[in-house]
Amino acid sequence: MLAILLLGSSARSYPLQKGMNAGDLLFMTPQQLRTRFADMKSIGVKWLRVEFDWSRIQPDGQETYILEQHDRIVSLAQEFHISVLGLIYFCPAWANGGHKPPAYPPADPESFARFASVLTARYSSAGVRHWEIWNEPNLGSSWEPRPSPAAYVALLRAAYTAIKQADSGATVVSGGLAQPYNTSTTMQAGDFLDAIYRNGAKEFLDAVGNHPYGNWEKMDGPNGLRATMSKYNDQDKEIWVTEYGAPTDGKGTVVVSEPAQAALLKDAFDRSSRQPRLGPVFWYNYKDWCEKGRPDPDCYYGLLRFDDSRKLSYLQYMEVH
Fold first, then answer.
1. Would the pTM count as exceeding 0.85?
2. Contact yes or no for 193/226 (Cβ under 8 A)
3. Among 55, 68, 108, 130, which is disulfide-ready with 102 (CB 3.0 to 4.6 Å)?
4. What is the predicted pLDDT for the residue at 13?
5. Beta 207-210 vs 130-135: how paired, if at all?
């Protein structure tokens, strides 16, 4: 009965833009990639968030780019008519002042901008015209040693300018925000967004990125991100949910049952169909990274288990339209 309820359809007012995170694509063989793309296409994936990790692409200096796997992924996305959101993030040691990579930001935002410009010029003709700048910059674990709204805006400004110079029609999305409490090394999403607007971010983003894991109210509620955007007269821009999901194994309070994961997925896409100015919703993640039994819940966000067997959320993703 639960599966029947989950798979039922509901009235929709806005086009559904079904996205997917799949970081494991970067480590697949060409045949594995083709098989994955065919499967993603079969369940209705329209958008794919592809990681362009600067620390991996230029680990030793700015003269060499390791992009062969990205070339394969972008080519297949074009072949299968799946749009790409490119996530540009992290930094190699040679560009971050000699700190341990990857989460220390660049010492000079212009070096990051040059990298973003190269990516834009390389992939815009293949249809990659949407770029997200950094991942969860309101976490110290992603922006070491602690979040800095002013420094993030400097990076965003430099990247935005470089991307627009290379492709004037490109869309730039601010880094998807995590949902922590305020601590010495983290900032609440709303506080961080307000701070980057105070530092001039409005002119350097086309959409706001967010990761509302379990916190949709903090995005669209009376004190949510949309309200912050309205405060700065920027409410007409879209919010892109560049990650959303829940793990079905491991230890911790975030772990849910497989039926509950499917229900969360359906709720997310139902919300996206009802809300104006909401961009694509990117489910996190396509497949579990680990065999059953590991304590780390990050292993188990997938629609598929590690052995490729399907969770109920896989069927739910296929059914939402």
1. yes
2. no
3. 55
4. 63
5. unpaired
Q: Among all chains, which residue has been given the structure tokens 């799949």?
A: 22
Query: Could you tell me where the DSSP H helices lie in 67-211?
Result: 68-79, 109-123, 149-166, 189-198
Would you tell me how many other CB atoms lie within 10 Å of the CB of residue 64?
Answer: 10
Q: Which amino acid is at 95?
A: A
Residue 154, token pair as written in the block: 């400097």
Q: DSSP readout, 102-115?
A: SSSPPSSHHHHHHH
Report which of 192, 308, 217, 200 is spatially closest to residue 267, judged by C-alpha positions.
217
Contact status, residue 279 vs residue 243, Cβ threshold 8 Å: no
Q: What percent of the chain has pLDDT over 70?
A: 96
| Residue 294 CB contacts under 8 Å (≥ 6 apart), including other chains | 249, 250, 300
The dihedral formed by the CA atoms of 270, 276, 279 and 284, expressed in degrees to the nearest 10: -30
In the predicted model, is pLDDT for residue 311 greater than 50?
yes
Tabulate helix, strand, coil % of the chain (nearest 5).
40, 15, 40
CA 120, chain centre distance (Å): 17
Measure the CA–CA gap between 272 and 43, rounded to whole angstroms: 18
Residues 6+ apart with CB under 8 A from 227: 221
Helix residue spans in the chain (DSSP H) = 2-7, 30-42, 54-57, 68-79, 109-123, 149-166, 189-198, 217-220, 225-231, 258-274, 312-319
| Domains of the chain by start residue, with CATH | 20-244 (3.20.20.80)
> Other CB atoms closer than 10 Å to residue 73's CB: what's the count?
24
Q: 242 - beta bridge partners? A: none
C-alpha span between 183 and 181 (Å, rounded): 6
* Contacts of 219-223 spanning 24+ positions with Cβ under 8 A: 220/275, 223/190
Burial of 284 (C-beta count, 10 Å sphere; 0-12/13-18/19+): buried
CA 115 – CA 128 distance, rounded (Å): 15
Beta strand pairing call for 130-135 and 83-89: parallel
